[in-house]
Design goal:
About 10% of the residues have low confidence. The longest helix has 26 residues. Helix content is 15%, strand content 36%.
């Protein structure tokens, strides 16, 4: 599945599918102190007189600077330090267990974010085929299941809006993938901004 983002600022963006249908939306009103990002999902309207889908709040991320942030999804609250803890030398990996009981890992590269499964003996039947996506396997299976793409202005190569490609095998846990993506992509952008400020 290819989701196009209206903005690279994932805390306030609209995500649409290939047909241009809005599937998710995030909103983070400005306020002093703790900010909260709300994740909305398009829900089909049951009213036969009004065929327009409506947006339903399904999750939140309560951002904290000193203490761990909080995530809420479908009424379940999770602390980020235990639900999606950091790993790796520079803390660029975040692992979590999906609602399907399988372990996943987000890798925050300097320019993109991707998610992989962390199982040794598990392979998804379908692989992503979009440009720049790699199926990788190390000693343990590390099949790539989702990848973000930055905006390209089209100066060199074709123009491209920011997007997220998600393996079709993850549709049953897509809400979790989207919420965790918003979290790690915001962290990645923060690290990128810090690097820019320290180098210039």
């Amino acid at each position: 599945m290819h989701l196009t983002l209206s903005s690279e600022r994932v805390r306030s963006t609209i995500m649409t599918n290939e047909e241009g249908q809005v599937l998710y939306k995030t909103s983070t009103p400005f306020r002093l102190g703790t900010r909260t990002t709300t994740l909305y999902k398009a829900v089909p309207n049951t009213d036969s007189d009004d065929m327009q889908d409506h947006m339903e709040a399904i999750g939140e991320i309560e951002w904290h600077l000193i203490h761990p942030s909080k995530m809420r999804l479908h009424g379940q609250e999770m602390m980020t330090n235990t639900f999606i803890p950091r790993h790796g030398f520079r803390g660029r990996k975040r692992t979590f267990t999906g609602p399907d009981g399988l372990p996943y890992r987000w890798d925050m590269d300097f320019k993109i974010v991707r998610v992989r499964t962390c199982l040794n003996d598990f392979l998804y039947s379908s692989a992503l085929t979009c440009p720049g996506t790699q199926l990788s396997r190390n000693d343990a299976t590390r099949q790539e299941l989702a990848r973000s793409h930055r905006r390209r202005l089209g100066i060199i190569g074709p123009r491209r809006d920011p997007s997220l490609d998600v393996d079709p095998g993850l549709m049953n846990i897509l809400d979790t993938i989207i919420l965790t993506f918003v979290y790690v992509e915001k962290l990645r952008r923060d690290k990128e901004e810090q690097a820019k400020q320290s180098s210039g």
